[in-house]
Every structure is written in C-alpha cells, then in structure tokens.
Amino acid sequence: MAAHLKKRVYEEFTKVVQQHEDLSTKKLRLTKPSKSAALHVDLCKATSPADALQYLLQFARKPVEVESVEGVVRILLEHYYKENDASVRLKIASLLGLLSKTAGFSPDCIVDDAINTLQNEKSHQVLAQLLDTLLVIGTKLPENPSVRMRLVEVACKHLTDSSHGVRNKCLQLIGCLGPVEKGVAKEAESQAAKDVQKIIGDHFNDQDPRVRTAAIKAMLQLHERGLKLQQAIYSQACKLLADDYEQVRSAAVQLIWVLSQLYPESIVPIPSSNEEIRLVDDAFGKICHMVSDGSWVVRVQAAKLLGSMQQVSSHFLEQTLDKKLMSDLRRKRTAHERAKELYSSGEFSSGRKWGDDAPKEEIDTGAVNLIESGACGAFVHGLEDEMYEVRIAAVEALCMLAQSSPSFAEKCLDFLVDMFNDEIEEVRLQSIHTMRKISNNITLREDQLDTVLAVLEDSSRDIREALHELLCCTNVSTKEGIHLALVELLKNLTKYPTDRESIWKCLKFLGSRHPTLVLPLVPELLSTHPFFDTPEPDMDDPAYIAVLVLIFNAAKSCPTMPALFSDHTFRHYAYLRDSLSHLVPPLRLPGRKLVSSAVSPSITPHEDPSQQFLHQSLERVYNFQHLDPRGIQELLEFTIRDLQRLGELQSELAGMADFTATYLQCQLLLIKALQEKLWNVAAPLYLKQNALASTAAKQILEETYKMEFMYSGVESRQVVIIHHMRLQAKALQLIVTARTTRGVEPLFGMCEKFLQEVDSFQRCFISELPHMQGSFVDKLLDLMPRLVTSKPSEVVKILQTTLRQSTFLHLPLPEQLHRATANIIEPTGESDNPLRFTSGLVVALDVDATLEHVQDPQGTVKVQVLYPDGQAQIIHPKPADFRNPGPGRHRLITQVYLSHTAWTEPCQIEVRLLLAYNSNRSKASTRIPKSTWSESLEALPPSENGIEGTIPFSKPVKVYIMPKPARR
Amino acid sequence: MPEIKVTPLGAGQDVGRSCILVSIAGKNVMLDCGMHMGYNDDRRFPDFSYITQNGRLTDFLDCVIISHFHLDHCGALPYFSEMVGYDGPIYMSHPTKAICPILLEDYRKITVDKKGETNFFTSQMIKDCMKKVVAVHLHQTVQVDEELEIKAYYAGHVLGAAMFQIKVGCESVVYTGDYNMTPDRHLGAAWIDKCRPDLLITESTYATTIRDSKRCRERDFLKKVHETVERGGKVLIPVFALGRAQELCILLETFWERMNLKAPIYFSTGLTEKANHYYKLFITWTNQKIRKTFVQRNMFEFKHIKAFDRAFADNPGPMVVFATPGMLHAGQSLQIFRKWAGNEKNMVIMPGYCVQGTVGHKILSGQRKLEMEGRQILEVKMQVEYMSFSAHADAKGIMQLIRQAEPRNVLLVHGEAKKMEFLRQKIEQEFHVSCFMPANGETTTILTNPSIPVDISLGLLKRETAIGAAPDAKKPKLMHGTLLMKDNSFRLVSPEQALKELGLAEHQLRFTCRVHIQDPRKEHETVLRVYNHLKGILKDYSVQHLPDGSITVESILIQATAHSEDQGTKVLLVSWTYQDEELGSYLTSLLKKGLPQSTP
C-alpha cells in the first residue's frame, strides 16, 4: 500500500517534468485523400444496416475539413434516401447536424435538401433528429431571416405529429428561430411574431408533459432572444403551476417570474373576489406558494426566483416571514416575538417556565386561514425545508431581498440567526455570509447577538472565520453587547488559539465602529482601579492584546478615552503600534510626540515618506556609476538591507521593496563575480576559485525566476529587465564554463545556445530595446554579426568585456506589486510528540496554509515534504482543497500522505510550499496581448525557453514523525 | 353507486387505539391495530367482535396494515392475530417490522411481569404474529390479491413510519398513520404524490395548532444544555426509549461535535441499544443529512454518547444523561433525579408531555417540594425546563398534505372531536371537498364515481382518431363503436366485429324523405338541374348522375318523379342509411330550400 502510494506520489512528481517534452512537434499540413470519397466507398461497401452504422460511427469520430463538408453532406443525403433502416437514417440525420456545426462552413447550401428529407420520413425518431439538424442549421445562419422563417414554417407543420419527441423539437426550433424582430419591419414580422407566441401558447395544454415543458421553455427562449411576451400568457402560465409534472411546474415558475418582471405594474383580478392587485405581487404570491410544492426541484427553483423579485410591495414581502401560530385555537406568540418582548421589557432572559409559551387570546375560528393564497410564511417553510438545497436557495433569496429593503432586513434577522444552527455546514456558512452582506441595514439586538456569538465555538474554522468577518461589520446596540462579544471572542481565542489574527482583526473593526459603547467599558476591560495600582498584564498574552486592539481602535475616534489609560497601557501602545501596526491605529496621546503623527491623512500615498525613501535610495543606487567598485558594493549592500527592513515595516510596500532588493542583490552578485580575481589568473589555477562565480550565476538565475513568477503585478517593462538580468547570468555561466573546461567541443553547443537565447530575447522584446541603451544586450546586439561568425573562445572574450562594460539598468517600478506569500498554519511545528505510524503504511498529515497574491494557486502551489535522508516528495493538492476567502487570498487545506521505512528514532521532516513555474507560460506573454512580441513568441519553438522549476515560498515547518517497524 | 365504507374501531374522535376498518370495492382492510394507553381493561384493545361475532377474522379481512411501531398503532396486534385469530397477511415497513416486536415484548413484560396480569399475549405469540408480517419497501406496489394493491409512502414521524395507499381498480384510499410535515434531526418530511385518492384518512392530533419553527426550540434546548454543562452542572433528560430520544441524541451529538465539547453524555441502557442498532441499519429511512454522510460516518454511531452505568450518577463534573422513562414516574430517570435534585446547578429537561400524577407533571407545574415514598420530602433546587419535541403534522402540515394528494374526500381520525370540527370546516372551506369525522363504531359511507376502463381495439381507435380534428387530451372526443359487455369485461369494438362476435345479421336502416320542388320542366331536366346544383355545392363529395336517371351523393340516392296530380311539381325522393344521417339531413334541408333560378 505504502509502496504503491509512494509510487503514485513520485509518478505525480515526474509527470510535471515530462510535460513539456512533446511540445516541439510542428504543425504539419497533410493533404489527405478527400474524405467524402472515402465515405462514399465505405457506404457503398456496407452490406447491412449494421455495417453502414458502424462506418458512420467511425466516420463521426474524425473531424472533417471545411472544404469537404458539402461533399460529405451530399453523399450522406444520397445514402439517406436509399436507406431503409431507421437507425442508419437517424445516424445520418445526426451527422448532418454535426457537420453543419463545422466552423467556417455555411450551411445555407444544404437547407433545401435538409428540409426535403423531412417530407417522406415516417419514423418519429428520425423526424425529431432531422428537426434537430434543422435547428443547428438555423442557429448557424443568424442573419438569414428568410431561411429561418422557412424552418419555422416547417416546424409548425410538424407540430401536429403524434410523437412527443417531434413536437418537442418543433417547439424548440420555434423558440430558437422564431422571429423576434419588432418595430423595424412592422407589419409582416410582428404578425408572425404574434403567431409564434400563439402557436407555442397553444401547446401549453398538450397532452404530453414533456411537450408542455418544451413549450414553456420555447417561450422562455423567445424571451431570452428579446421578444416581449404578451401579458395574456400569464393566466395560462398560472394554470400550469398546478400541473401534475414537476418539470412543467418548474418551467412554469420561471415563466411567471419572467412575466412578473415584464409587467410588474399591470393589474390582475383576484379570482373569487372583486379586488385587483399588481401583477408582480400576484406572481410573488404564486411563486411563494410553490415553495411548499411536493417536488424539491420546484421548491429550489421557486425559492431562488423569489430573491430577484424586488418590485414586490413591502406588505407582501413581509408576509413571507409571517406565520400565525396558534395552539388549541388560541393565538400564540412565536419564540421570536417572545424574545423581542423579553428584550424590550428590560428583563434579561430568565429560565423559561412551563407554560411560558401558553397561548393567550382566543382566535376567531373564521379568521384563521390555513392555506393563504398569498405569500404567507413562504420563507418560514423554505428555511425549514427538508432538502438543504432548498434551504440554501431560501437563504440566498432572503439575502437579495433584504439588501434592497431595510425593513425586510430587520424582519428576517431572526430567521437568519436561526439558520446559524442548521445541521448542514454549508447552510450555516451561507447564512453567516448573508448576514454579513445585509449587516449595514441592521442592528443586532442583544438576544440575537447572543445566538450569533454562540456559534463562535463551532469547530469548523470556516464558520468561525466567517463569523469574525460578520462581526467586523455588525452594528451592536448596547455596551453589554460589546462586552458580550468581547467575552465570547476571548473564549474563542482560548479554545482555538490559531484564530488569533482573525479575532484581533475582528476586534479592530468592532472597536472602531463602536467607540462610544467601548468607552464606559474601558476601566473594566483594563481592570484599572481608581485607588489601587493593578498588576501590569502580560504583554504577550493574546487575550490582552485583543482587549488592547479593541480599546485603541475605539480610542482613535474618542479623544477622552486615553485619559482612562494607566501608564503601562501607554507603553504597551507604543509596543503594539510598532509590532502590530496593521491592527493598532495611530493615536493622539496627551504629552507624547508621536512618530507617525506626522502622517496626516491628507497626504496622498504617493508622497508617503516611506515611498519617498524607497525611491530616493533607488535613485542613489542608479547613479553609482562614478563610484569605485568597493563603494558600489557597499552602497548596494546597504540599500538592500534598508529595503528589506522597509519591507518588514511597511506591509503595503513590502512587495515593492522586496522586488527591488532582489534585483539589487542580483546586480551585487554579478558585480562581485566579475571582480573576482580569477579572471586574471592563469587557467589551471582558477579551477578552485571559480566556485564563487558559478554559484553567483546560479543564484542570479534563481532570483530572476523568483522575480518573474513570485510577484503579482509585474508588467512587461519589468519582465524585460528580469530577462536581461537572466541573460547576463547565462553569459557569466558561459564564461565560467569556458574558463574551466578544456577542449572546445562542449563550448560550441553552449555558444550556439546562448546566441539563440540572445536572438529570442531580441525578438521577444524588440519594442523595449530602445529603452536599453548601453546595456549588455544593446552592446551584444551591435556585436552580433561578429559573434555569429567567430569561434567560441572569441565569443567568450567578447562577452566578458561587454559584461564588464555594460551599464546597470534602471528597474522601473509598477503601480502595484505584491509578493506571493504562504504561511503554514498547520502543522505548527511545535509539537514534541512524534507522529507515530507503522512503517510501510501511510499517515495523513493535515496541512493548512494561507496564500496571498498567488495567481492560479490550483495550478502552481505544491506541497513539498523533505525527509531526513534527503528524499523529497512533491504533492499536488486537489483543486478542491483551495478556498478563496477574499480577493488575492487563498486558503489551502489539504492532507499530505507520509510514508517511510522504519526508523530507529523519531526525526523531523520538513514541510513547505512550493510555487511551480514554467517559463513558457510566462506571465508577461499571457498578460499583454497588445504588444508585438507576444505574437512573435508563438512562432518560437517552445522548448527553447521552456524551463520549469519551483520556488519555495513558505517557511518550512518541521514535523516530528516516527515510522515504527511493523510487528509481525 | 359504488361506495367506500369506513368504520373506526379506535381513534375515531380520540387519540390512541388506532384501528380503522375500510371496505372498498368488496375488499376489507384493517388499518392499524393499536392499544389505548389510558385503559387497563378490555377497552384498551379495539373491539374485534364488531368485525365478526363468530368465525375466523381471516374470512372477513383481506389484509391488515400497520403504519408504524408506536404501541397505539400496533399494540393489539398479537392479541388480534393470535388470541382472536387472524391468519391473513399483515403489512408493515421493514423498520417497523424490526422494531415493533421489541416494543411489544417490552409492553408485555410491563403488563404481565410488573402488573401481574394473566390472559395476556405471550412472547411466543409475538413471534408467531411477526411471522405473518410481510415487509414492504417505500413506493413498492404490493399486490395483496388480484385486485387489491397497496403502496407505502414516507411519513416521517418515527423511523419506518409510512402512509399507505390502498387501491382496488380505480378506487383508492390513503391512510396516513401519524406523519410529520417538517423534517427533524433524524427524519425527513412526509411526502406523497398527486395520487388523487377517493378518500384520505388523516390523523389530526394537532388540528388546531400551528407550530413555531423547530429551530428555535432546538436552539433553546442546546443553549440550556450547553450553559448548564459549562457551569459544571449535570443535565437529566428523561425520555422514552424510542423516537424522540434518537432525535435528541443526534442533536446533542452533532452539537458536541460542532462545539468541540468534552463533557460526557450517557444514555441509560435497555432496549435503546437494540433500537439504536436498527436506526443504524435503516439509514434509507432517515433524513438527507444522515443519508448523505453515512458513508463517512453513520450518525447513529455516537462518538460522544456512551452507555450509562448506575455508578456514573455520582461522578463529579458535568454530564448529560438520557434516562428512561420519560415521565419520571419510576425507574432510572427517577433515581437519577433524586440524586441531582438538590443542586441548583443541575437541570432537568422534560422533552415531552407528562401525565397527571407523575413526578414529571408535578415539577413542571412548579412544585418544588415533592413527597416521595417513605414520607421523605425531596426539595427540588435544580432547574426544570420543558421543551416540546413532537413529530405530528400541525394544522398547516395537514392542509399541505391534502393539497399534495388532492383527495376527493377527507376523513379525520386520531384527534379530539372539538379540534377536528375546526379542521373539518377549514378543509371543506379551502378545498371544497367533503370531510368526515366518524366516532368509534360509526360507519361513514362515501360514494365514489369511479371511471370504468373499457378496452378498445387498436384498429377502431386509429380509425376514429383519424376522423376530425387532431386529438386533444383535455377535451372528450366522440367515437362510434359498439360497447360489448361480456364476461365481466367491457370492450368497444366496431359494429361489424360486434355483429360477427354476437352472430347477428346486419340490418339496414334507411331514411327516406320526399321533397317537393316547383319545376315545370321535364323530369330528366329537373334531375340534371338538381345534379348541377349539388355538384356545385358539394365539391368534396362524389356526386354522380346515374344512367337510370337517379343521382347519388356518396351513398345517398335521389330520384325525381313528377307529381301525379300536378305536373309542375316534382317529387324528389331522398334516401340514406342511418350511417349517413348527417349528410342526408343536410341534403334534404338543402333541397328544401329549392333550386336556384337557372340561367340558361
């Protein structure tokens, strides 16, 4: 088992490497003997229908060139008339349709033949297939109304067929091809349009449910194509809601919805009374009724559509949440009402007494309407439905309606809160998200908040995080509410310490939203006492930090608050402001000069001093030309150090700073390598010393790949520079090899390859070359004619001099640059207990990581496991293991299978995340289609620059494991 | 007029002892065979002597159907089949068949061993009775005999509860048993298709109640338990072993799982373990969630819920205990209650109704000092909570089911008369169907109007549909044919075939009519004029002028003779067979209008 698994893992690993070997195939244009002729021969050879069918099946597997389509069609048609067997005719008919779909083929030449085939056909199945073919032909000819009209006429003629299949297809055809133009050619066209609607409408009462469904679908199709449906259909559609068959009902619900959107304000009479209501309200009531349909498919459909009916009057809307309770004919209050009353009476929830919910007033028996015709309780039913699909749909609909109506949002709150306890996690998650979306319309009551907070203990991380997000944007009404939220969040923190970041973030928003509610809580939260000094809390306690985050964020807009702080609070503020700058805002504290107070919000981010600093230091670097080599090196080193530190401090500039630091690092390495003594030493001696230069070259290569693939927001201007740097590194490599190897033969190949690369560089980045005056490549291209003809040794010499003379290219910075980062949350690497398992078997290791600014993580992110014996495994997580909680953020939750032979002692393995790249699908080439070089890139043989590899982009985590020998 | 007769032997305007007799199209079916909880004398079982005074019940009943395993629906079964004597088939669902004997055995033990009754059914009788049971699957149509067929639908309520459709020919009855229209933590909602039965017999326990959402109750329950456990208190939940207990277990189990709680949950042993075993087996009868997740983990294999041991009650720290019986009147639940009642940190949650006189009822009505046996006084300091978890359809649910099934008549059972009356009015008002609520022993007769199927020969059908407009399913269509009633079957055949089969000779029936026309011309000229006239009008028909001076239009013959008295008046003799009646009468009316003035 383990062996098998390991094998699988390796297979997966090796698969990546092999992927690009077959890419060098060239497109060949083969002139084949005409396909039609071959088919003709085949069909003539066929002795029995079964044979013919086989030939046709084989034929259908291969594509047909555009030129020969018509010929093939003719042969097929010819055979069609001769064929007696219905199945073969059926296949031919379907082939005709398939062939008409061929790109570039215009089927108007075969329309007549196709229509003719219909005339003498007796088999219903073949007839249906032929109509399908006509449909394909019709859709291929969108700008030929006369053909379409003809096809529609043909379909109308066959509507009386006794087979449901044929009628089905006819209706489909009419729906897809029926004329929808109006206004322009009024008389004839609109007359026909009316006819089409009438024809389809007549089939609403067909005896076959499938045909009824098809008729409704055809009507919907017409609507989608822009025909305005007549209001008269509405009453017909309403009757269809009571159909026996679910697919009919489901389609009818859709039709009613469409009509309600078309004629929302029309007035329709209520049957059995003299009153009239708006059509949209009537439709809403009807669809609500379908939420308690017998079939769950219809229920889902209805619940979904409810959400998008926004013109409904609020009176109707609010009925959906209404369900009059009664017990023994006496009115009973719902638990929601009771909770509300309890709250408004100022009494905190006391234990419920027996009979607390005892019904109060008598109900007039006549007034109770058990099945309301209207919308009553639709959502109450939908949210209680048996199928979670219906419940999710209902929650979504609630969300959409609540977003457009604040009063409805207020009302549906109780129901949403109830959904937090659903048995299916998806539903819970969905309702939390919904609540978050409508949270600006609502204020949570204390009892509701209580229920919401209870979910914080959920063991599912997704739920908890969603809830934190919800709390970030909730309005709380009382200070008790805030206190409750804080207490529950701290409880959550102690139970699930990994939620730390998310909880802090949540408290940050909670604090900044409710400064006035936090204010009275401050003494209690900081446990200050008016007379006594209280012990200073532990600064490393996450719970204490959480409290401080809440208070500091509240204090930002509440200037009186700092007066309540004790001394150590100020000290802690300074510390947190520095260490958790993204959570703690700058505060105006009395008697304290603030470092960051200089940053007034009016200054735009471009003038941000840190940004200025970044640019200044870069300017300095680019002007180093007149410095001595020693000075250059030092300057570079300092700047790199500065940039790295800047990146740590200013998270929004981290990407930019790292990117430039990496670039400078490359340059530094290059300079160092070129200044090595080895160049002056005689050949035999530098064998030993070349180590530095060759490692430098290798490192530069690695760094350039990192620059190209690890940052999101890299533009073509940067890509050029990166490629240029890579080219320099390759030149360096070539020189070093030339120096260290004896003999010329290997050099030939290398030179050849290098020159090819220069060539491809030139072709790719031709548009950018003017910006690269005086650079390595610029000079190289000037010398190109000479290089091509000269011997390898000369090439090397030329390269060496150009490399030394070339200038340092200015790296322009893009607007936005983010470095892909990954953080492994689980495993934590802190455990001292080895994970024990029997050798040869597998153990599953849960890996949980957050990824930021990774594009297409499904394709690029891998997990690497390094064993102590140097073995490495690369595991591809399943696409489903990635979740996308926000823009630019991803979450990887997966399981990694480990296995190894027995060890005598527990030992640590390393787990890390890798970012796989492939220079073929270079980011630049996919992103910038406008530039010319991307087109020329396609012409290149792809293997030339098809280098792939992986970049480790997370800190490795150590996991203690112990494979035990198997007991026999 | 055919009719369906329904006589409740139990559950007519009453709860308990469900037993309803239905005779439909000559078949007699007994629905449920329950006992009454409230009585200990003869009244606890239905009065089977109503069916027959002497003689075997088997001769009078075609089958017995049991809807679910609650004793008020199946408690009298061994008595009925073994002691009164019935050997016919008994139908029930698979889970019911599995669990029913456990409950019956328990019931027998309590009655015989505890109360010391004699003349009660024995264990062997339960076994023998179960041998007569035929288990059915959901939606499986079972042919009881050639005409009678039954079909089970899902009913929620408890594991294995089913609704049954009983069908003979075109007449059908649906019996719901107890059902639940809102899903709960372990069971789904009842569902039925649009089967349009002649009669729907539905329970009406909550005829006058519309219930609040289940979620609030669940949430309250969980919150209470959670708070108490966090405080370090102990929670006692007295339950009956089957049904709600499993729902509460699932509820707590998932909550524990979700919230990562560690406090132990115990379930007092007994028949529960056996029953849980069956719950594990019959996953298909549970709700969506359990059905979908059982591949990973069967929800009834509880991780957090362990078997209870008497000694655990004294353990320190928080815990939750499910203990039987549910009304705190005896047994383990009462013992635990006594131990824990003194501590205000603890809590007891009553999940159901308590009969008057039990400890459960007393504490629920607020009594804090209880007198136990031996004159000792127990002071109740623990919190007392009431949570109603009931699995019957409420008024809305009943209406919803009626809407789904679209019956022609409704009959209410299993409820109180006063409440039924309200629901009856509502049903008649909303659905415009008649609704009945017979008392026990009262027979309700429902007239049905069954459609009678007639066989038609394909040739005739094709011929007749080809004539006239295209077939339209929504409109009745007129057909010509001969109805043959022979050997208890109906057939529609063509006249020729009917004659042939019956061995009769065909008789021609002709209508003749004379039409007087004022025309002074010669006879043959008149004929010619008539011919031309008809030819001009009846373009679609073949009009022929025969050499003998007569005209034929299809098979209609027209001859002209001069009037014997007045030569200016010609008499046209029109003659047609009755098949051509339509054309013939049209022709005469045409001729009566006279000929157009000729323009020579």
Describe this entry's structure for a reader:
The complex is a heterodimer of chains A (968) and B (600). By secondary structure, chain A is α+β, with helices and mostly antiparallel strands. Chain A folds into five domains: 41-180 and 194-262, Leucine-rich Repeat Variant (Alpha Horseshoe); 263-322 and 373-437, Leucine-rich Repeat Variant; 442-588; 609-805, no CATH class; 820-921 and 947-964, Immunoglobulins (Immunoglobulin-like, Sandwich), CATH 2.60.40. Helix content of chain A is 55%, strand content 9%. Chain A contains 40 helices and 16 strands. In chain A, strands 8, 10, 11, 14, 15 and 16 form a six-stranded mixed sheet that branches. In chain A, strand 10 and strand 11 form a beta hairpin. Chain A is globular, with a radius of gyration of 37 Å. The two termini of chain A are 17 Å apart. The relative contact order of chain A is 0.04. Residues 9-25, 27-33, 183-190, 345-357, 593-606 and 921-946 of chain A have low confidence and may be disordered. With 600 residues, chain B is α/β, with parallel strands linked by helices. Chain B folds into four domains: 3-210 and 391-447, Ribonuclease Z/Hydroxyacylglutathione hydrolase-like (Metallo-beta-lactamase, Chain A); 214-386, Rossmann fold, CATH 3.40.50; 455-469 and 476-502, no CATH class; 510-593, TATA-Binding Protein (2-Layer Sandwich). In chain B, 30% of the residues lie in helices and 24% in strands. Chain B contains 16 helices and 30 strands. In chain B, strands 6-5-4-3-2-1-22 form a seven-stranded mixed sheet. A seven-stranded mixed sheet of chain B has the order 7-8-9-10-11-20-21, covered by helices on one side. Chain B has a six-stranded parallel sheet with strand order 14-13-15-12-16-19, with helices on both faces. In chain B, a hairpin with a 2-residue loop joins strand 24 and strand 25. Chain B is elongated and about 130 Å long. The model of chain B has no long low-confidence stretch (mean pLDDT 85).
